[in-house]
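FW: tagging you since you asked about this chain on Friday. Here's the raw sequence from the shared folder, copied in full. Didn't touch anything.
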Amino acid sequence: MKVEHHNMLPDTSSVASELTFEDSWDSTAVSGLIRSKCCFGETPAFLFLGRKEAELLREHLASAFGSESVSTLHDSYFMGLEVVELNSDSFVHVAGRKTSRLLQDPIARRPAWRDRETDALWGFRL
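HL: got it, structure written out here
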């Protein structure tokens, strides 16, 4: 029995950055990018950032939470996406897939506060 091994060539194709920031973080632009990639109940899972954008995000978060709270973006999430820092000068890309678990989330099954019809049903169960 002869086993053939195929050499895997490195992937040389590059992925273009989806956003460009000048001198500050733009949450509205990132939110729009995330929404543009949502479909059929699935949302992106990862926010890939180059060094420049990672620093802009750190500055943005530090202005809200304090600089001591944002020393690193390792294991951080922004707008529900896991932040992944890349060894690249400048890059922004949203990718991956995760399903929206709204219907499975217990808080989604909770009745609306003071909904008359639901309140009446709860009253009969007592």
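FW: Helices lie at 27-36, 51-65, 106-109, 116-125.
HL: agreed, and The mean pLDDT is 79.
FW: great, closing this out.
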